[in-house]
Give the backbone structure.
Amino acid sequence: MVPVADAHTHSNPVKGLGMEKIAPKFKEAGGWFLAVVGLSPWHYGMEGTLENYERALKVVLAEAERAREAGLKASALFGFHPADVDKLLGSMSPEEVLSRGLEVLKIVEKYLAKGDLDGVGEVGRQHYKTTPVAVVISEMIMNRALEVARDYGAVVHLHLEQGGRITALDIKDRINRTNANKEKVVVHHARGKSLEAAVEEGLVATVPGVKGSLERAVKLEPLYMIESDHIDDPKRPGVVVYPWEMARVQRELLEEGLVDEDYLWKINVENIKRTYGVEGP
Ligand SMILES: [Zn+2]
Ligand SMILES: [Zn+2]
């Protein structure tokens, strides 16, 4: 079986399993690479102050290091999630929330410059109904994140609505306007028509590694990657999928003749090497 990569995951050493437990299980199941994406400070039991965003970023660096110690390759990403915009608007003005998001990106830049951090994410747009001003703030932060990623040759993960072709066209346009590196802008958690449109528009995307989404995905060109988007929250165990479950699902697709090894190699190894700039397994 082809080595399996998780192109977007989380780990929570404070409230959840953490990399100490996740990494050996993933490796045992045939995993070779994880992109560890930051959670917002409150997931790690902290309030959303600027200082705590930096502390949360350091948690991600430590978790990626733990994955490497377990013999995996890992990239570390940190950003300002669109849901943070809504949460902070509960107690801050729109201008204050925007500047909090941009300040967090400045911290992100500092760690990208040092070479400690590998990418920016999550940033993007809400996938649920919210206020127009929250969307505008989120988009301003996303645009800045695309520029930061471009300046440091870093990967950036976009959390977006499942808007099909419209989402893909909008992101393509933002990439062109910011002159970002298309290979490093990842439309994360794309499913069904949204994944289809992303692939057709030449965008890099990740699809959740669950059977239903993958059965549709494998009909497309092998230009995307697979993610667990595991939130490592004990209140929602196994959401979206455990990283170590992804190998089993892909083996089933192989046994059912829906994919071949060459296809799986492309999405689990070749595409990861290109987007994350890591050496293969
Ligand atoms: Zn997301
Ligand atoms: Zn995520």
